[in-house]
Amino acid sequence: MTNVGFCPLCRENKAIVKSHIFPKSLLGLDREAVVPKFFKGNRSVSAGSPRREGVYEKLLCKGCEDKIGAFESYGIKILKQAETHFCRSDDFFSIKFDYKLWRLFCLSMFWRASVAKRVEYIECDIPENILDMIRVSLLDPSASDWPTNLYPIRVIRSEQSCIDMRGMHIFPKKYIRNDNSEFLYSFINGWGFICFPGLYEKKSRLEALFSFEARKDVLTIFKYIDKKDKFFTSFWEEYRLEYYNRNH
User: Fold this and answer.
1) Per residue, what are the HEC states of 56-101?
2) Phi and psi of 55, rounded to 5°?
3) C-alpha 172: how far from its chain's center?
4) CB atoms < 10 A from the CB of 204, how many?
5) Which of 69, 74, 109, 70 is nearest to 95 (CA)?
6) What does residue 139 show for φ and ψ, rounded to 5 degrees?
7) Are 189 and 27 in contact (CB under 8 A)?
8) Cβ atoms within 10 A of the Cβ of 67, count?
9) What confidence tens digit (pLDDT) does each residue in 174-228 have?
10) What residues contact 55, with CB distance under 8 A and at least 6 apart?
11) What is the distance between the alpha carbons of residues 10 and 145, in angstroms, rounded to a whole number?
């Protein structure tokens, strides 16, 4: 039976298909028998058989799913190149890239999470005006000439010596730094996605944080090990504390 509904991307009533919020291939489940580990806030979420391939819902029409899929294919191709590079223990990876396609790949995941109805993504709260800007850009990449300091997303490679991170997905959550800067942070199978949900000022600390993301010719991804990845470490410490409190 065809499931007809409203597609939030093209905003038309069409047959709706199953959509992965974050690409299945990012979980690394195709390469080996990895048990997915999902986390919402500080609490782990049971990964039953329906979630063996990741978290999904019937969200988009087939045409829009394929359109976003093209951005995902481009982004995942780069991440696979970076993963191979990091196997040689280098601290960073640089490559000439298509700035628009990479940015739309990153933004598409947060956009999906924000418009999805699943409770796992409740903290991915993006203002309606920004959601619509992303939506228009996904439909027409020529409309994605945003300032580099508007909704920048930094991608990092994270390795933790004492944690099995294979198949691990931290659903997008709010992260507040010591300087009260608020971010959206998500982690999936060794990749951290850090989004500043707004417009940062020039010559600010945020400009320094996203300095490499401001380049449109070369993409640079850094690798952080153990506590050098402050975003993942902060989440993990909170999770361990919550886990301890629940079990003692």
Assistant:
1) EEEEEEHHHHHHHHHHHHHHHHHHHHHHHHHCCCCCEEEEECCHHH
2) -100, 130
3) 7
4) 13
5) 74
6) -75, -35
7) yes
8) 19
9) 888 777 888 999 999 899 999 998 888 888 888 888 999 999 999 999 999 988 8
10) 20, 21, 22, 38, 118, 120, 169, 171
11) 20
Other beta carbons within 10 Å of 212: 15
Of 47, 44, 106, 36, nearest in space to 71 by CA: 106
- Reply yes or no on whether the pLDDT at 165 is more than 70: yes
Rounded-to-integer distance, Cα 175 and Cα 26, Å: 22
At 158 the three-state DSSP class reads strand
- Of residues 145 and 36, more confidence is placed in 145
Q: Are strands 153-159 and 218-225 parallel, antiparallel or unpaired?
A: parallel
Give the tokens for residue 141.
């990449």
DSSP classification of residue 102 = H
Give mean pLDDT, residues 49-54: 52
User: Residue 83: which domain range?
Assistant: 4-247
User: What CA–CA distance (Å, rounded) separates 2 from 6?
Assistant: 13
Please name every residue paired with 95 in a beta bridge, in sequence order, or none if there are none: 219
Cβ 53 vs Cβ 217: under 8 Å? no
Q: Position of tokens 């990845």?
A: 229
Q: Tens digit of pLDDT for each residue in 141-155?
A: 988 788 898 999 999
From the list 235, 240, 224, the residue with the least C-alpha distance to 86 is: 224
What is the C-alpha to C-alpha distance for residues 191 and 2, in angstroms, rounded to an integer?
36
Q: Which two tokens stand for residue 144?
A: 């994605």
* Structural domain count of the chain: 1
Beta strand 4-7 with 12-20: parallel, antiparallel or unpaired?
Answer: antiparallel
